[in-house]
Amino acid sequence: MQIKRHKTRKVKINDLEIGGDAPICVESMTNTDPHDVSATIKQINELASAGCELVRIALPDLKAAEYVKDIKKETDVPLMADIHFDYRIALAAIEYGIDSLRLNPGNIREPEYVKKVVDAVKEKNMTVRIGVNSGSINRKKYPHPTPEALVDSAFEHIKIFEQENFFNIIVSLKSTDVLTTIRAYEIFSKKSDYPLHIGITEAGTQFSGAIKSSVGIGVLLYEGLGDTLRVSLSGNPVTEVTTGYKILQALGLREHGVEVIACPTCGRAEIDVEKIALDIENSTSNINKHIKIAVMGCIVNGPGEAMDADVGVACSKNEAIIFKKGKIIKKITHNQIKDELINAIVS
Amino acid sequence: MQIKRHKTRKVKINDLEIGGDAPICVESMTNTDPHDVSATIKQINELASAGCELVRIALPDLKAAEYVKDIKKETDVPLMADIHFDYRIALAAIEYGIDSLRLNPGNIREPEYVKKVVDAVKEKNMTVRIGVNSGSINRKKYPHPTPEALVDSAFEHIKIFEQENFFNIIVSLKSTDVLTTIRAYEIFSKKSDYPLHIGITEAGTQFSGAIKSSVGIGVLLYEGLGDTLRVSLSGNPVTEVTTGYKILQALGLREHGVEVIACPTCGRAEIDVEKIALDIENSTSNINKHIKIAVMGCIVNGPGEAMDADVGVACSKNEAIIFKKGKIIKKITHNQIKDELINAIVS
Question: H-helix or E-strand containing B2?
Answer without folding.
Answer: none
